[in-house]
């Protein structure tokens, strides 16, 4: 059913007259009395009608039209007020002044009245009026308090209780001024007469039992967890051997307590106890001795009558503490290095402290001298462990392990070194040298040997290079194993010395089991390894060699410059390696080894660039791809085209190499880099279409490779022949500048 309201004409019923603001209306054709706050048609007020606002009306401001509960969220007006109430049932007071706070919440026009709690007031305090909207007093009880009803030095009535507003806070004043309210001057707040009289009585009273309150909370909060630590020693005179006993003293700054712990040495024969002194305040030793129990008390009393009244005394508290005994305790100012403290009759010497303690005394007391007192006796020297000489049975390490314990254990190998230096991929970790016999025999003079040093376990093996028509059968010459240095006694207690990697270099002379070898060359891997690990091999350390050469040649710098200049008559700034070697040998008088001269030559050498045949490189690359059955040239080409954003047919060298690696192209790094370099343009961009066409052995196979047999470089196939040096000429001017400085 739909309810339809319509405005009707007022009717008189008998003699009754209704209020002029009351209006009649019809609901479902039934006449009803309508409230006076109902407006007319269109919401316009009727003639003579005055609408009453339900909430506080705020002036229109700039900005968004947010509702009051959003705009004034958590904004409260605070007013200081008091209530005067009568006290008819007490003679001490006729009325009572109760101070309170009135809070007006702007978001919903709610009001709350709170009275601050007063200790021992005897009345209920706190929230007097809970937060809600409070109606105005009669005859306007249908309206509620709004912001316009509050001002300073005015009165408000909440449920027949009259509150006098005396003042407000600064935020409230600023807000009311913005609302256009003219603030009254603040009023004085009267004091409660009974409370004032009560306070006078309390101030004039002298407590019968005064309590001295010692506040230690501040000290605890400032120094909680701060502990001073001292290292002490106690020379116990009653012990049998008068041995000093080491102690650790802890001073807790939070409550001035001390505890001590004893450092019990191993196998000292003493029982290990948790504390030498439990944590407590440590009293200073009085001159008259220790006080008897009951001598020191918190309070002192006086016997007023003595024994005059029936042998019964009358005692009162002594406020002046006549005859009180005060005991002193150790404080942080009493603890210093070198001081002797009395710990219940034991003389404890403070010898040292930790860094925190030093910083504390340096900051608070300005102490800078923290010289420790020596208190520890030097430990007796450990007897040198001697081993019996080697008997000849088994290895020296195995025989030595039988002397280290009752249960013999096999010697432990350096497993970590084995894992680091074992063969891994292309890293063989094997140093190989070409050697010859040091002999005058014409038969043995031309024999060539390959000496292999294994870095994983420091073992050495020797192979003889097979030469045709020499009459000597080549092959394994010396089994792999560790080799002792010559000139050592066989049966001795000390372990023998073995050949190390640093003992092998080009030009070195070594003796393996009575055979003298002269190392005349090394493979490229060995030389590169020694140069990478120059900190382990001094003969490959360029900085060390230059410093050594500078010490020898610096007095003759001018003469050496003239000799090098005479060797280069055409002023090309480079000389051949052989004249350079001869000059270094003459300058150093043979003090430099062949390997050191070669290291300098490699550092200042001019590397020759060989022109590589593109046809040969592509043939080798196609052979490698064919052996590994690589045919994904279509997918590889699609990836190259996808990465070519500009569609110009070229890509950077590094990007091409990354794409080939991601496809796991079965080409070694040197060959892949060489082929990519062949297809680079002037801007270091690779023409990837030509590169892929050259590698595609399916469509562009190179038949000329059928007759080519190019052996791949493999370090295991090194036959011991001296490798050709990667340089033939030496730049001597940079060498002279590094030795003697640039010539003016």
UniProtKB/TrEMBL annotation:
Among Pfam families, the record links this protein to: DM10_dom
Subcellular compartments = Cytoplasm, Cytoskeleton, Cilium axoneme
Q: What is its main location?
A: cytoplasm
GO cellular component entries: axoneme; microtubule
Entry keywords, A to Z: Cell projection, Cytoplasm, Cytoskeleton, Repeat
Q: Which InterPro entries match?
A: DM10_dom (IPR006602), EF-hand-dom_pair (IPR011992), EFHC1/EFHC2/EFHB (IPR040193)
Asked if the record carries the keyword Oxidoreductase, the reply is no
Which GO biological process entries does UniProt record here? regulation of neuron projection development
Q: Which segments constitute the DM10 domain?
A: 73-180, 224-365, 427-534
Please give the function described in this protein's UniProt entry.
Microtubule inner protein (MIP) part of the dynein-decorated doublet microtubules (DMTs) in cilia axoneme, which is required for motile cilia beating.
Q: What is this protein called?
A: EF-hand domain-containing family member C2
Q: What does the record give as the organism's lineage? A: Eukaryota, Metazoa, Chordata, Craniata, Vertebrata
């Amino acid at each position: 059913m739909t309810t339809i309201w319509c405005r009707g004409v007022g009717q008189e019923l008998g003699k009754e007259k209704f209020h002029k603001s009351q209006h009649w209306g019809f609901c479902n054709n039934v006449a009803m009395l309508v409230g006076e706050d109902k407006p007319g048609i269109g919401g316009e007020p009727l003639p003579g009608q005055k609408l009453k606002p339900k909430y506080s009306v705020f002036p229109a401001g700039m900005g968004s039209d947010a509702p009051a509960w959003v705009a004034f969220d958590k904004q409260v007006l605070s007013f200081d007020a008091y209530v005067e109430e009568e006290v008819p049932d007490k003679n001490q007071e006729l009325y009572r002044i109760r101070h309170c706070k009135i809070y007006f919440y702007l978001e919903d026009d709610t009001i709350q009245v709170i009275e601050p709690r007063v200790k021992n007031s005897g009345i209920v305090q706190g929230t007097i009026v809970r937060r809600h909207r409070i109606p105005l007093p009669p005859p306007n009880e249908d309206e509620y308090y709004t912001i316009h009803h509050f001002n300073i030095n005015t009165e408000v009535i909440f449920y027949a209780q009259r509150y006098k507003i005396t003042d407000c806070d600064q935020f409230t004043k600023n807000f009311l001024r913005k609302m256009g309210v003219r603030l009254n001057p603040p009023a004085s707040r009267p004091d409660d007469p009974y409370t004032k009289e009560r306070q006078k009585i309390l101030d004039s009273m002298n407590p019968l039992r005064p309590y001295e309150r010692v506040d230690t909370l501040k000290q605890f909060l400032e120094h909680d967890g701060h502990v001073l630590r001292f290292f002490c020693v106690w020379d116990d005179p009653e012990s049998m051997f008068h041995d000093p006993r080491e102690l650790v003293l802890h001073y807790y700054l939070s409550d001035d307590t001390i505890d001590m712990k004893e450092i019990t040495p191993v196998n000292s024969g003493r029982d290990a106890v948790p504390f030498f002194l439990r944590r407590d305040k440590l009293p200073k030793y009085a001159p008259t001795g220790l006080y008897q129990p009951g001598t020191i008390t918190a309070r002192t009393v006086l016997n007023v009558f003595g024994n005059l009244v029936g042998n019964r005394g009358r005692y009162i508290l002594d406020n002046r503490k006549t005859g009180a005994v005060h005991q002193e305790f150790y404080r942080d100012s009493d603890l210093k290095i070198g001081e002797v403290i009395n710990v219940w009759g034991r003389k404890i010497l403070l010898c040292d402290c930790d860094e925190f303690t030093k910083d504390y005394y340096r900051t608070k007391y300005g102490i800078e001298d923290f010289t420790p007192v020596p208190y520890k006796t030097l430990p007796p020297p450990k007897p040198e462990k001697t081993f019996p000489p080697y008997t000849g049975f088994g290895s020296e390490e195995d025989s030595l392990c039988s002397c280290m314990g009752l249960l013999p254990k096999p010697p432990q190998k350096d497993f970590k070194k084995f894992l680091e230096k074992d063969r891994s991929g292309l890293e063989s970790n094997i140093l190989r040298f070409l050697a010859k016999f040091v002999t005058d025999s014409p038969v043995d003079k031309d024999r060539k040997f390959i000496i292999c040093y294994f870095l994983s376990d420091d073992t050495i093996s020797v192979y003889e290079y097979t030469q045709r028509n020499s009459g000597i059968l080549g092959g394994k010459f010396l089994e792999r194993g560790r080799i002792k240095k010559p000139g050592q006694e066989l049966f001795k207690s000390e372990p023998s010395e073995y050949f190390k990697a640093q003992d092998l270099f080009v030009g070195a002379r070594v003796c393996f089991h009575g055979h003298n070898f002269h190392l005349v060359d090394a493979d490229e891997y060995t030389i590169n390894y020694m140069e990478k690990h120059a900190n382990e091999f001094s003969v490959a350390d360029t900085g060390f060699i230059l410093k050594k050469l500078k010490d020898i040649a610096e007095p003759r710098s001018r003469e050496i410059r003239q000799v090098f200049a005479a060797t280069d008559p055409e002023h090309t700034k480079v000389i051949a390696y052989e004249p350079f070697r001869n000059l270094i040998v003459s300058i150093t008088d043979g003090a430099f080894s062949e390997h050191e001269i070669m290291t300098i030559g490699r550092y200042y050498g001019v590397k020759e660039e060989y022109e590589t045949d593109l046809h040969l490189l592509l043939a080798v690359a196609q052979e490698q791809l064919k052996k590994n059955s690589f045919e994904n040239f279509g997918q590889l080409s699609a990836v190259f085209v996808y990465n070519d954003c500009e569609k110009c047919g070229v890509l950077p060298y590094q990007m091409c190499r990354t794409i080939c690696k991601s496809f796991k192209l079965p080409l070694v790094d040197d060959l892949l880099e060489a082929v990519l370099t062949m297809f680079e343009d002037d801007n270091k961009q690779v023409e990837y279409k030509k590169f892929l066409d050259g590698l595609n052995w399916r469509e562009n196979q190179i038949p000329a490779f059928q007759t080519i047999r190019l052996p791949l470089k493999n370090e295991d196939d090194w036959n011991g022949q001296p490798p050709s040096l990667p340089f033939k000429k030496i730049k001597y001017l940079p060498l002279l500048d590094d030795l003697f400085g640039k010539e003016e």
